[in-house]
Amino acid sequence: MFDRHAGGDRAVLVSLMNGRPEAVEATTELRELARSAGVTPVAEILGRSQHPDAATFAGSGKVREIGDAVTGAEAAMVIFNHELSPAQERNLERELGCRVVDRTALILDIFAQRAKSNEGKLQVELAQLEHLATRLVRGWTHLERQKGGIGLRGPGETQLETDRRLLGKRVKFLKDRLARLNRQRQTQRRARERNSVPTVSLVGYTNAGKSTLFNALTHSGAYAADQLFATLDTTSRRVHTAHGNIVLSDTVGFIRHLPHTLVEAFRATLDETARADLLLHVVDASSPDRDAQMREVNGVLAAIGAADVRQILVFNKIDLAGLEPGVELDDCGSISRLRLSALTGAGLEHLRAALEQLARPAAAPLPEGRLEAA
Asked: What band does 194 get if pLDDT is binned at 50, 70 and 90?
C-alpha cells in the first residue's frame, strides 16, 4: 500500500476538456499552476469527458492511458485539472498506485506555500481544513477503525471520529482568530471613513501584473514575480496626491474555478474590495484569454458583493501586446479604460490622473503634478 501523503515533484497532468472553448488556455494554466507549486510536469494527458465517470472521473481506457504515462515517466503524482470527489480521488489512487491531486488541492497547496502574513496563513489553513473535512466525512473509510486512546478518545471512538472532532476544534479556533482580525480591520476602516480617505483596490486575474503596478504607483517593494499567485497577502499603502491621500491596496489574484473554500476563507479580506471607492481591474493585455479572465474576475467580484463598485479597466503589459498607451473616457468625462505598461511606465500618467480625479474635491480641476508615495 503506497503512502497517499508521499511527496514528489514529477507529475502527469490530466485535462479532459477537449471541445471546450477554453481548453487550450485551461491546460496551459494547469501547467503554470503545477510549476508554481514546485512540481515538474513530465507528461500531459488530454481528452474529452462530457459525462465524468462516477468512480474515477475518467473512463477506464483513459485511466489505463494515465497509468502508462505514470509508469513511463516515473511520475510520483497525477494532477487533474478538475474537481474530484473523495471517492474518485481514492479510486484513482488505487488504480494508478500514486498520489492523485485535483485542481482545488493544487491551488490550496500554492496558497499554503505563498502566505506570509499571520492572517494569510490562518485563512489558508482554514480553507485547507474545510477541504480536508469533506475527505474525512466522505472518503477516508480506511480510518474507520476502533482505536483506544488515553485522554483524547472515549471508549469505542473510531479514529475517523477523533480526527473529525479535532479538526472541528481547530476550524473553530481559526474562525475565532480571523473574526478578531476582521473586527480590527473594521475599526481601521471606520477611521479612514471618518477622515474621508478614498480607497482604491487593485483586482484582476492572477499574474496580470497587479503587484508590479502597485509598486510603480507607490514606489514600494511589494513582491512581484512572473508566476501565478505571487501575491496572497493584501498590502496597503497611503499615496499622496495634490488634493489629499488615497489608500491603495494590492489584493490576491483570481483564477477560473477558484475553490469555494478559499473564497469563504478570504471573504473578510475581500470585503475590503467590496467597500472600496474604486477598483482598478488590471488585465493582461497580452493574454489570448483575457476576455474570459475578465469574466472570471467579475464573477468573483459579484460573489463578494463588489459588482457595483466603480471600475477602471487597466490593460497592462502593452509592451508585450504591441499596443500604444491610451485612455478612454465615459459619458461623464471620467477615465473608464486605459492602456499602460507597469513594467516600463508607459501610460502610467493616465492612471495617476484618474487617481488625482478621485482624490480632488468635486469642483477642483485635474492637477498637473504627479503622484508621490508616502
From this structure: low
Taking each helix axis from N to C terminus, what angle separates 118-138 and 103-114, rounded to the nearest 10 degrees?
150
- C-alpha grid cell for residue 16? 479532459
CA–CA distances in Å: residue 71 to residues 10, 44, 76, 228, 372:
11, 13, 9, 29, 57
Neighbours of 73 (CB within 10 A): 15
Query: In sequence order, which residues have a C-beta less than 8 Å from that of residue 199 and are 6 or more positions away?
Result: 192, 246, 247, 249, 272, 275, 276, 277, 278
pLDDT band at 367 (very low <50, low <70, confident <90, very high): very low
- Measured CA to CA, the distance from residue 22 to residue 17 in angstroms comes to 8
End-to-end CA distance of the chain: 58
DSSP one-letter code for 309:
S
What distance separates the 2 farthest-apart alpha carbons in the chain? 76
Q: Is the pTM of this model over 0.70?
A: yes
How confident is the model over 353-367, as a mean pLDDT? 64
CA distances from 309 to 101, 253, 298, 349, 358 (A): 36, 17, 11, 23, 13
User: Measured between alpha carbons, how far is 24 from 288 in angstroms, rounded to an integer?
Assistant: 10
Nearest by Cα to 310 from 284, 334, 339: 334
C-alpha grid cell, residue 307: 459588482
Q: How many CB atoms lie within 10 A of CB 84?
A: 22
Separation CA 228–CA 275 (nearest Å): 26
Can you give the three-state secondary structure of 116-175, one letter per residue? CCHHHHHHHHHHHHHHHHHHHHHCCHHHCCECCCCCCCCCCCEHHHHHHHHHHHHHHHHH
> Are residues 100 and 232 in contact, defined by beta-carbon separation less than 8 angstroms?
no
> Do the beta carbons of residue 48 and residue 19 sit within 8 Å?
yes
Q: Which among 127, 117, 128, 168 has a CA at the least distance from the CA of 266?
A: 127
